[in-house]
């Protein structure tokens, strides 16, 4: 997940700069979440839910006794193994979502539970997408129940849980409405323009039967169409269980749709093992079935791009060109296409904030239209990050995130890897896809270093703890530099340093790319979840001579040692330059609220900002005439002490304009640069790192033993351009 224009701080001590493509700097929002496996059980690539396909999708009431007995026995075996109740031969839970009251922002839901057990419990999630307890039940209204057409009183057990009568019911129905009026990839919204739906914000689940199949139907306003990550046709969709449903958002309205397919040439088993200890790659077909040709061959990937925006606000050609480069680069890097179809749901609103939310087979991304116009790279950065999540966190999944607890939340200690290293790969992918130059890559790396080094909290909060405390990010003051660091920021840095360490220790015969592929092969594919110990074991096997590995895990991941940038960067013939100079002091601290507003949290006493009348609580609408969600304009590199700034602010008493000259203060700036005369080994590591290859650098470039270089060019076929 990313808040691409996340919280921004402008203070005399710290500035958070909005680098939309590097969520490490200003990220305040938490994170992802949602589902992949059913009730904490593995979901191997090749399986369609816990129940292994359609075995339980039929309506059990018509089955013969023998069939019911067989299913019952099978169910008993499964139930014993899975540790959760199970009833044979029950049909899917059905949800009907009526979107025909868009002006009222009310999604009317009918939930039907066939053959409901006595005392069936219904629960509403308290969180999803973001790692924040958000109490989604607050938007549920007019809840009533009926059993076989007769009204039934539900007993409320707690804030999120209701229970039916202690008698069975052939068709237990819940009727309710959900107020959906929050535009963001992490929420749900319904208005006369469109609907964007995250189902965990809309639909109850049965805590005792979360692995039960579900079917979803929609009633749409006249003339609307629907696109969803769910499997299905027309307005009728299904999912193997609630977790998959919650991880499959939908867009409805009058969107633009584009499709493209890509052929990805996957390498054979010998081309990537080259002495690196990498497991032979097994190529899987859709949903994990091996394609013909054994463990190598061409795979065709299908991508759908759904855009809710004014077509005048973006170039479809540029959009598809960017996405194609990203999907091509990352599938080649992972040597894997584990989906039958991947869906980008994109919003480019004229007003409001942005962000990106990953899903197993798609992503929802919002980028303000003005930002798209001024800073196209922000969209590319978010897309590169979210697409890589389809492996890292959605399939390469930490044990601690399973099973998903929709009410209390989960242990998020591994977010430095699941989010931070995803940011590492977002950046590497942009570089290797040719979307940014090495010089831009170095500049962003230096910016990430600055973002961490300016936070005093790095002295006491480890990156593991930062992930664990992600749940506190909903409180603005938690993000103070004195209180917390960002697991995006430090996690991404650790990803870069780890890659350099592996390459150095293995003489560039192995890399972090190999680690990701091993996690994919050894954990994601067989449906296993990983722990930090598992990661350590893979690192040890790929780079046995990496003597500092234990210290890295203990001191840099779980501890608070200062990162040794100089040693790691030197492995690639790079150095970090630090310069103390006068930089502008903005005189205030601002935070981005959950609604996307940039709000002044405090004003420094005696500052020019205070003298000019800036107040706590002011919402900053524009700076120097530009909408302020384009926070990259607030980089201290582009502003100088003495320069005048003008803010259009909104406050309760009425809008105002605040204008003042920036003061100066002493601060450190960072720059990463290449050593002019690297050793052969340093050059080898650097070239491998930048290009995503392992092997020996010879007179004619890299002789690869892995990575992208051996792959054949890919082709792209576009369809359905409007
Ligand atoms: Zn993310």
Outline the fold blueprint.
Blueprint lengths: L64 H18 L10 E6 L7 E11 L4 E3 L16 E8 L2 E3 L2 E4 L2 E3 L5 E11 L9 E2 L3 E4 L16 E6 L5 E4 L2 E3 L2 E4 L2 H5 L3 E4 L2 E11 L30 E12 L7 H19 L7 E6 L7 E5 L2 E5 L2 H6 L2 H12 L26 H18 L5 H16 L9 H6 L18 H19 L6 H13 L7 H11 L6 H9 L7 H7 L2 E12 L2 E5 L5 E6 L4 H4 L7 E5 L2 E2 L16 E7 L5 E6 L1 E12 L5 H12 L1 E6 L2 E7 L7 E5 L3
Parallel strand pairs: 1-11, 17-18, 18-20
Antiparallel strand pairs: 1-2, 2-8, 3-7, 4-5, 4-8, 6-7, 9-10, 10-15, 11-14, 12-15, 13-14, 16-17, 16-31, 19-20, 21-28, 22-23, 24-25, 24-26, 26-27, 29-30
Helix pairs in contact: 3-5, 5-6, 6-9, 7-9, 9-13, 9-15, 10-11
The structure holds zinc ion.
């Amino acid at each position: 997940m990313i808040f691409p224009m996340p919280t921004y701080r402008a203070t005399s001590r710290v500035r958070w700069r909005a680098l939309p493509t590097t969520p490490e700097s200003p990220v305040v929002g938490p994170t992802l979440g949602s589902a992949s496996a059913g009730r904490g059980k593995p979901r191997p690539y090749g399986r369609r839910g816990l129940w292994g396909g359609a075995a339980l999708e039929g309506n059990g009431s018509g089955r013969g006794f023998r069939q019911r007995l067989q299913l019952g026995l099978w169910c008993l075996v499964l139930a014993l193994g899975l540790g959760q109740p199970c009833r044979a031969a029950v049909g899917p839970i059905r949800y009907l979502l009526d979107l025909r009251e868009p002006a009222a922002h009310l999604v009317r839901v009918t939930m039907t539970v066939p053959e409901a057990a006595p005392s069936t419990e219904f629960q509403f999630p308290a969180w999803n997408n973001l790692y924040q307890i958000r109490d989604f039940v607050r938007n549920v209204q007019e809840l009533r129940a009926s059993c076989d057409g007769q009204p039934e009183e539900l007993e409320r057990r707690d804030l999120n849980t209701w229970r039916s009568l202690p008698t069975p019911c052939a068709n237990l129905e819940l009727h309710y409405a959900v107020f959906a009026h929050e535009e963001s990839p992490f929420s749900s919204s319904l208005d006369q323009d469109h609907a964007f739906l995250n189902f965990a914000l809309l639909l109850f689940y049965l805590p005792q039967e979360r692995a039960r199949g579900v079917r979803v139907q929609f009633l749409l306003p006249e003339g609307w169409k629907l696109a969803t990550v769910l499997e299905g046709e027309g307005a009728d969709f299904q999912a193997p269980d609630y977790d998959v449903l919650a991880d499959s958002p939908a867009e409805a309205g009058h969107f633009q749709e584009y499709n493209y397919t890509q052929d990805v040439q996957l390498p054979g088993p010998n081309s990537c093992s080259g002495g690196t200890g990498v497991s032979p790659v097994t190529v899987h077909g859709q949903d994990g079935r091996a394609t013909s040709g054994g463990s190598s061959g061409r795979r065709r990937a299908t991508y759908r791009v759904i855009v809710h925006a004014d077509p005048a606000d973006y170039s479809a050609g540029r959009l598809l060109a960017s996405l194609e480069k990203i999907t091509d680069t990352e599938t080649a890097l992972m040597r894997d296409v584990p989906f039958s179809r991947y869906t980008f749901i994109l919003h480019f609103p004229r007003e409001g904030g942005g962000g990106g939310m990953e899903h197993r087979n798609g992503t929802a991304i919002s980028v303000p239209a003005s930002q798209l116009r001024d800073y196209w790279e922000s969209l590319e950065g978010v897309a590169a990050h979210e697409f890589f999540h389809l492996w890292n966190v959605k399939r390469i999944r930490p044990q601690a995130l399973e099973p998903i607890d929709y009410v209390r939340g989960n242990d998020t200690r591994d977010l430095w890897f699941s989010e931070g290293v995803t940011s590492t790969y977002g950046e590497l992918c942009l570089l290797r896809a040719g979307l940014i130059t090495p010089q831009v890559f170095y500049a962003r790396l230096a910016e990430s270093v600055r973002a961490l080094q300016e936070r005093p909290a790095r002295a006491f909060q480890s990156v593991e703890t930062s992930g664990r405390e992600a749940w506190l990010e909903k409180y603005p003051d938690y993000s103070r530099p004195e209180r917390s660091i960002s697991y995006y920021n430090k996690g991404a840095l650790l990803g870069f340093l780890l890659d350099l360490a592996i390459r150095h220790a293995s003489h560039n015969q192995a890399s972090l790319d190999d680690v990701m592929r091993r996690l994919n092969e050894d954990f994601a594919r067989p449906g296993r979840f990983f722990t930090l110990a598992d990661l350590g074991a893979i690192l040890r096997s790929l780079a046995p001579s990496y003597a500092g590995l234990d210290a890295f895990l203990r001191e840099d991941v779980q501890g608070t040692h200062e990162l040794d940038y100089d040693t790691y960067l030197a492995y690639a013939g790079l150095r970090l330059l630090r310069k103390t100079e006068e930089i502008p002091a903005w005189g205030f601290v601002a935070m981005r609220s959950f609604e996307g507003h940039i709000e002044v949290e405090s004003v420094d006493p005696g500052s020019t900002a205070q003298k000019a009348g800036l107040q706590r609580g002011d919402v900053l609408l524009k700076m120097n005439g530009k909408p302020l969600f384009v926070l990259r304009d607030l980089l201290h590199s582009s502003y100088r002490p003495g320069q005048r700034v003008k803010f259009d602010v909104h406050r309760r008493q009425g809008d105002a304009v605040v204008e003042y000259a920036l003061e100066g203060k002493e601060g450190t700036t960072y720059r990463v640069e290449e050593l002019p005369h690297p050793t052969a080994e340093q050059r080898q590591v650097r070239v491998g790192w930048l290009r995503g290859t392992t092997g020996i650098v010879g007179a004619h470039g890299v002789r690869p033993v892995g990575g992208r270089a051996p792959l054949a060019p890919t082709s792209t076929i576009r369809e359905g351009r409007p």
